[in-house]
Design goal:
This protein is α/β, with parallel strands linked by helices. The chain is about 40% helix and about 20% strand.
């Protein structure tokens, strides 16, 4: 397992690498200068389970806002920097727990050194980020296009630039919207470095397509023991990124906790609004800190049998429903009361 042997990096009060738990990241889509809006979004992300948050820092005002934002949140704050090295320095001076840069677009050696010197003084980790959309022209020519090999070479070149300034408090990320290219790049990189890796499928898309691409790509990468932090990049509410990341980790048995809802796909026997009920259940259970499986079944014919592997379940019939525990029918209730009966059972669940 590569992640068991990566370098341990401290980000605020969290540690990644070296076999530490894989942490979930997201990024705000508010204007960082708007402290109130940014803090409100981060609080929503914290409540959903976000463990590291990144904010863009394109202006001096944004860098200065980080100080106030940091006072009001409870998770490590990462500053996302492009093009202007001064923003990286200012972000660290205003309390950023980590910075994300691409040394290739931050300026010449003196500017990179200024960033590294500030990070070194404060022991702030630097995430070296390389994206397939900004791969250097010479590497595109060398590999006859944008390739996994080119991404890896670019990332390691950038890492060496910082290492040459005698600093190795680093995290690496290489991202592409091409899922299979991203997978191959991570496989190659994991064999060539011991730095912790931040993993994600960039520009994955909307809630629908982005979740599918992220689940496939992250699933393959994480299953191979690669990756120390993850982000599911979705076009939409960043809270959805956290929900998806938690489910991916839980599906791979890389994280415990949280109720898992399983539901049948419906068929001609279904006599209740199973789709609506399953969605209501999935929303309701998010507030319960239980590590159990809940089944939502559409008929009383196969419901009890299908729910045997769940800790608790409900199965709908014509106007009535069943409450099921470990495959045993506990009681029959009116269909309209199914959701409330399940909620009461969860509230009184014996841990």
């Amino acid at each position: 397992m590569y992640r068991d042997h990566t370098k341990v990096v401290q980000i605020g009060d969290k540690k990644i690498g070296g076999g530490n738990p894989i942490l979930i990241q997201s990024m705000t889509n508010t204007k960082t200068e708007d402290v109130k809006a940014t803090v409100a979004q981060i609080h929503a992300l914290e409540a959903a389970g976000c463990e590291i948050i990144r904010c863009t820092v394109p202006t001096k005002e944004a860098a200065e806002a980080l100080g106030e934002i940091k006072k009001q949140i409870h998770i490590p704050l990462v500053a996302d920097i492009h093009f202007d090295y001064r923003m990286a320095v200012a972000a660290m001076e205003n309390g950023a727990d980590k910075i994300r840069i691409n040394p290739g677009n931050i300026g010449g050696p003196e500017k990179i050194k200024a960033v590294v010197d500030t990070a070194k003084e404060r022991n702030i980790p630097i995430r070296v980020g390389v994206n397939s959309g900004s791969l250097e022209k010479e590497l595109v020519e060398k590999y006859h296009g944008v390739t996994a090999e080119g991404l890896v070479e670019s990332a390691l070149d950038k890492v060496k630039i910082i290492e040459d300034f005698d600093y190795d408090n680093l995290v690496i990320s290489i991202k592409s919207s091409d899922v299979l290219m991203c997978v191959k790049a991570h496989e190659l990189l994991a064999e060539k470095t011991a730095y912790p890796l931040h993993v994600g499928i960039t520009e994955a898309g909307t809630l629908y397509s982005g979740n599918i691409k992220s689940a496939v790509g992250l699933g393959i990468i994480l299953y191979q023991g690669i990756g120390d932090t993850i982000r599911v990049s979705l076009t939409g509410d960043p809270v959805e990124e956290i929900k998806s990341a938690k489910r991916i980790l839980k599906t791979l048995n890389l994280r415990k906790g949280g109720i898992e809802v399983v539901s049948c796909p419906t068929c001609g026997r279904t006599q209740i609004d199973l789709i609506g009920l399953a969605n209501q259940v999935e929303t309701m259970v998010q507030k319960f800190p239980l590590d159990i499986k809940v089944a939502v079944m559409g008929c009383v014919v196969n419901g009890p049998g299908e729910a045997k592997e769940a800790d608790i379940g409900i199965a709908g019939g014509k106007g009535v429903g069943l409450l099921i525990k470990k495959g045993e029918i506990i009681r029959k209730v009116p269909e309209a009361e199914l959701l409330e009966v399940l909620r009461l059972e969860l509230e009184n669940w014996e841990k």
